[in-house]
Specification:
The structure is a single chain. The protein starts with 11 loop residues before the first helix and ends in a 28-residue tail after the last strand. By secondary structure, it is mainly alpha-helical. α2 (24-33) packs across α5. The protein has helices at residues 12-20, 24-33, 39-46, 50-62, 83-103; strands at 66-70, 77-81, 113-114, 121-122. Helices cover 41% and strands 9% of the residues. It has a two-stranded antiparallel sheet with strand order 1-2.
Length: 150
């Protein structure tokens, strides 16, 4: 059975899923963002097999989301977010906000975000880049873009 090629679809969601659509990739990005940059750290935190972790890291490097930086004479690397990867973490922060609202349960969210600019604990809030107003699914119309399928 051949896997659907999401990266070839004329859809930004599908193309994004081609990069991070399997369950381990967002968790790897989360851990790298949180400061776990070495293979053994990632494996210990995630409980993932070495084979799967190697495959996922290679994929994320190939996609330009992570970079390998050598830290030892042996071929050992630290993984660092690229600018492309840092923007994906923004997407994960939106996912976290949804999970905190709908899935955290009585114990509350497992992590909090302190904003560097003001020092306050906060959450992600989607805003229109043009006017600054909040922006949610019911506040927009979907229009064909220049890259839309014919």
């Amino acid at each position: 059975m051949q896997r659907t090629k999401f990266g070839e679809m004329a859809c930004s969601i599908a193309r994004t899923l081609d990069v991070i659509g399997e369950p381990w990739s967002p968790l790897i990005l989360r851990d790298v963002w949180a400061g776990m940059s070495r293979f053994d750290q990632l494996q210990a935190d995630l409980g993932i097999s070495r084979k799967v972790l190697t495959e996922r890291l290679n994929h994320l490097v190939d996609q330009g989301v992570l970079e390998r930086h050598p830290y030892d004479r042996r071929p050992r690397y630290e993984y660092v977010l690229t600018a492309k990867g840092a923007e994906l973490v923004d997407l994960l922060m939106v996912m976290t906000s949804w999970g905190d609202r709908w899935l955290a349960g009585e114990s509350g969210p497992p992590a909090l975000y302190r904003h560097h600019a003001c020092g306050e604990i906060s959450s992600v809030d989607l805003r229109c880049a043009h006017c600054g107003e909040t922006m949610h699914a019911g506040d927009v119309d979907l229009l064909p873009g220049p890259g839309a399928a014919a």
